[in-house]
Every structure is written in C-alpha cells, then in structure tokens.
Amino acid sequence: MDLGSIFLTLAVALLVGMFITRPFAGRRASSEQLIRPAAEETEVLRSTLLAERDRVLNSLQELEFDFTLGKIPAADYPTQRAELLKAGAAVLRQLDEMAGSRGGEQKLSAEDRVEAVVAARRADAVVRRSVPQPAAVGVAVVEAPVSRRPPSPLNDDLEAEIAARRQVRQEKAGGFCPKCGRPVVQSDRFCSKCGTTL
Prior knowledge:
Layout: H1 3-34, H2 38-69, H3 77-99, H4 110-130, H5 156-172, E1 173-176, E2 183-185
Antiparallel strand pairs: 1-2
Helix pairs in contact: 2-3, 3-4
C-alpha cells in the first residue's frame, strides 16, 4: 500500500465519522438554544409588551386625529376607541404583573393611565401645532382643527414647569443679528457668528 491510498482511507474514515456524529452534536447545540435563561425570556416578553403598548398608543393618537379630520364616522369612533383602550389596558396590566406591582398598589387603573398618556401626547401635539413653522415658498399651510379638552390634573405641575421655562427663555432672548440673522441673547454686545456690533 502506498502513502496516497493510506491518506485517502483516513480521509474517508474521518468523513464517515463526522457524518455519524453530526446528529449528536446538533442536538447539543439545539438544546443549548432551547434552554434560554428565564431572565432573557422575561426581557424579550417585556420588550414585546412595551412595543405593543407604543403601537396601541400610536393607534389611539391616529384614531383621534382621523376623527378630528372627519375621516371616521361618529358612530364608529367610540367602539374603535374602546377596543384600543381595552387592548392598551391589558398590555399595561401584563407589564404591571411583570414588574411585581398589583392593582391595589396603583393609584390609577390601567385604562386611566392609557387615557393620561393619550392626553399628554395630545397636549404635545397641540403645542407643536401652535408653534409657527416656516413654510416653503408657494406651499399653503393647512392646520388641522384641534379638539379642546380640559387638561388632565396629572399634567398640571408639568405644564406649569414648562410654562416657567419658556418664560425664562423668552426673557433671555434678545432678538436676531441684523446682519446674519443668528439669534442673540440680551447680554450679547457682538454677534457670535459675524461679529457685528449689536
């Protein structure tokens, strides 16, 4: 027997051995993948629930916007809104159970919390719409009608703090540079961009 045939026999034996042991090695790898730590599964479930919560909140916001624009009939709006609120409340309850808190410890029910988040997003959208945006030349700006509802008592402190910060910011603003148009503060004597005396 020459050396080439010995190597060929060893190569064939090695390939046969690898083919025979392959199912056993595959089972070990798949069983390691199946045995996932419980903490990792909990984190995946929590992430899924948070994504579902955000999806429901966005759907509620879009539903309200479409209703305001008249795209949804008045008869369909309450049922669609109730279904979305129910879905959002179920997701919040599951998140509460994962966090270890129970309904007795919460000050607000899940439905009320969904309503509070929707009201906060609505208020944020109203503030964004009330700030004048520069329009492109030749493009008409059409603003959607805004539904006026009383603000939630949960957000009163936050709204007061935002108003106070805006007041401080407006007091500091000194206008714009007459040469380059950059915003300046009242205490500025020169423009920080072009150096023009103010």
